[in-house]
Design a protein that fits this description.
It contains ten helices and seven strands. With about 240 residues, it is an alpha/beta fold. The chain has a seven-stranded mixed beta sheet, sandwiched between helices. Helix 2 runs antiparallel to helix 3, helix 2 packs across helix 5 and helix 3 packs across helix 4. The chain is globular.
Length: about 240
């Protein structure tokens, strides 16, 4: 909370126009291009990172596919995770997120502007509908962000198991999977205080369909999980 207040305080003259513009985009989302809305969201988040005593160190951006229509997935540490991704990711993307977030101010507007999908993890039927919708949109060229753990690990840089069902939209569309590893992201918004914090975001080598075509979703989940975990261990975070 204190870091959010710091971000707002250091940008108090920029926040009102940026907020009203975001709300306008969210209310009239079909009147504006995906790129225009996404660029405004990135502007807000990059402003927040700069003013929030956050050193966001990004590597592996050369691994990001040139063409959209792939699945972006990684470990989930805290509320800052999706903000770090969008702040560093030039290509417009949407996300699958838990339904409890859909009515929170700011997140509500982001969901509307990106046409992201809230998922009810307790409703199997609704979850399957979301996966089917995401698969359809990936096949049409949209890029999606998903956290396969399904929830924040609350164990710092230690990961939870990945859910195999997350990767059904990949097997359905035969799309590329782009893994990423977040390190110390939980220190930004899930801890009190405004002291400087360094967050690492590593985009790993993409996984083409040919590499996982003979695997079931549980095996794909384990493979992606292990690659991310190895990266976190490689930099000495666990």
């Amino acid at each position: 909370m204190w870091r959010i207040l710091l971000m707002v305080w250091r940008n108090f003259w920029k926040v009102p126009p940026a907020w009203f513009k975001l709300c306008h985009y969210a209310k009239h989302t079909d009147k504006y291009s995906y790129e225009e809305k996404y660029n405004h969201i990135r502007y807000i988040l990059q402003m927040a990172v700069t003013s929030g005593n956050i050193d966001l160190q990004v590597t592996g951006q050369e691994n990001i596919p040139e063409n959209p229509g792939f699945l972006l997935c990684g470990n989930h540490q805290g509320m800052f995770d999706p903000l770090a991704i969008v702040a560093s990711f030039k290509m417009p993307l949407a996300a699958v997120l838990k339904k409890e977030l859909k009515d929170i101010p700011f997140l509500k507007q982001l969901i509307a502007c990106t046409k992201s999908h809230p998922m009810d993890r307790g409703d199997v039927r609704q979850s399957m509908k979301v996966i089917q919708a995401v698969a359809k949109e990936i096949s049409e060229g949209r890029t999606y962000l998903i956290f396969p753990e399904g929830t924040r690990s609350k164990k710092g840089n230690c990961m939870l198991d990945f859910h195999g069902g997350t990767f059904k939209c990949a097997t359905k569309t035969k799309c590329t999977i782009l893994p990423f590893a977040l390190i110390d992201s939980f220190k930004v918004l899930d801890h009190n205080g405004v002291e400087p914090v360094t967050v690492q975001l590593h985009y790993l080598k993409p996984i083409p369909y040919e590499e996982y075509k003979d695997m079931n979703t549980t095996e794909i989940a384990a493979m992606v999980h292990d690659r991310i975990e190895r990266k976190i261990a490689e930099v000495g975070a666990i």
